[in-house]
Amino acid sequence: MTQQIHSLWLMASPADEAMLASLVGALSQRFGTPPFTPHLTLQGDTTMPPAELARAAEAAAGTVAAFAEPVALIEGSETFFRSFYARFAVSPSLAALKRTLDPEGLGSFMPHVSLLYGPVEPAAKAAAIAEVNAQLAGRHIRFERIGVVTSGQDIPIAEWRVVASVPLRAA
Predict the structure, then answer these.
(1) What distance in Å separates the CA atoms of residue 25 and residue 116, rounded to the nearest whole number?
(2) Strands (E), the chain
(3) For a FRET experiment, which of 57, 59, 107, 114 has its CA 20 to 30 Å from that of 99?
(4) What's the pTM value of the predicted model, to 2 decimals?
(5) In which element (H, E) is residue 133 found?
């Protein structure tokens, strides 16, 4: 049996998640790329069992209250899973969650919510990045829960599933 891969995602409030999902859907249609649930990865591609990840998420969520962070800017890269994304500063709340859940990754942590996966024509992508930057830069996104997700680079995006959700501490 193949070992399942899971990730820990920081997930936005229902209103912000709906807005981001609408944007991901529109970009996906515009560029012919796969749609996905918008999220900020706290720990990716781990073989740790979901129950153990849920316990770790509960412990971390108990130390950080739900919070809002402004989008620093919209950027793009050649990386498949970071083709087009909303970048955030490493705030105290984000750093605390990362330090608790993935301390080895803290030094290279670049908090972001991807908005598009995959390669697209550079000039068209640059134009879309400018459009979305005008719409989202400076806008606060409220993060309220940690998801335990069956997901990974070797799992088809259409098969990614949230298997547990842990709310952050009430503000």
Answers:
(1) 9
(2) 6-12, 40-46, 67-70, 73-76, 84-87, 112-116, 140-150, 161-167
(3) 114
(4) 0.94
(5) helix 122-136
